[in-house]
Specification:
The protein is elongated. The N and C termini lie far apart (56 Å). β1, α1 and β2 form a beta-alpha-beta unit. The model has no long low-confidence stretch (mean pLDDT 88). With 271 residues, it is α/β, with parallel strands linked by helices. It is built from nine helices and eight strands.
Length: 271
């Protein structure tokens, strides 16, 4: 049986950055068993003392931290070493390296990435726009979108749209329904339009699970494999007719799909 580790994520801000880094890190180790505890807005030595005390009472504790204030980060490192608790600073060396490269001193300000600047308000505007244009709710002003996603049901349109919105991209997603026409203004739209497709068998499984979980009374065609095959085939024909790029999301995470979309947007901008 593998040893189970107690992972402590310690941040002087919201902890969002550290959590994402840890998710990437743990994905590299198939047999890594752990329990996780998160500490946000840690900005005093007293707070650190409490964390170290708790770690010292446990077996196999590990601390990962993002603390940009040099004195406090050093204190955490020293206390961890004193009590033999493995401790790893995620940003320290990176900030130092950038400081040398840019030939300027880092400000070491907690939550600096959350400053209410132009980029922040751009993301908020993108999120509001995207939510109001989810699932084909509003199509009369899609010219204002940065990207339009088309696809049959359960091709990850909504989660991908939300992910893109959080990156600052105004996103419209429109479902393709069998024997229903797409909005006319799509054909003349100058936004980046992208088609999403998936393996019919995979879609059938996802739809059956959704119907069971939500206890929905859906028509047979919604989960019928042959009907889904026709939906997907028709969507591919539509994308080809209009020269819209296509992404197969069958074995892609939302992040991977979004990365491909951003690459397409970049190519379109540079044409």
């Amino acid at each position: 049986m593998n040893e189970k580790y107690n992972v402590y994520l310690v941040s002087d801000s919201t902890g969002e950055t550290l959590d994402r880094i840890f998710l990437s890190l743990k994905s590299q180790f198939a047999n890594f068993e752990y329990s996780k505890k998160e500490f946000a807005f840690i900005r005093t030595e007293q707070q650190i003392d409490k964390i170290i005390k708790e770690c010292n009472e446990l077996d196999s504790a590990i601390i990962l931290y993002t603390i940009v204030e040099t004195k406090l980060a050093k204190y955490l490192s020293q206390q961890s070493e004193k009590f033999s608790v493995p401790c790893f600073g995620v940003l320290g060396n990176l900030i130092l390296s950038f400081s040398k490269l840019l030939n300027q001193k880092a400000i070491h300000k907690p939550s600096a990435q959350h400053v209410l600047d132009e980029d922040y308000y751009r993301r908020i505007e993108a999120i509001q726009f995207t939510m109001s244009h989810d699932d084909g709710k509003k199509v009369d002003d899609i010219d204002n979108a940065d990207v339009v996603l088309l696809g049959v049901s359960r091709t990850s349109k909504t989660p991908t749209s939300i992910y893109l919105a959080n990156r600052g991209y105004k996103t419209v997603n429109i479902p393709l329904v069998l024997d229903q026409k797409i909005p006319e203004n799509l054909k003349t739209n100058k936004s980046c339009i992208i088609g999403l497709v998936a393996d019919p068998e995979r879609l059938s499984d996802i739809r059956r699970n959704r119907v069971a979980i939500m206890k929905e009374q859906r028509i047979k065609e919604y989960t019928d494999l042959e009907s889904i095959k026709k939906e997907v085939e028709d969507s591919k024909k539509l994308f080809k007719q209009n020269n819209w790029p296509v992404i197969d999301v069958t074995r892609r995470s939302v992040e991977e799909t979004a990365a491909s979309i951003l690459k397409i947007i970049d190519i379109k901008k540079n044409k």
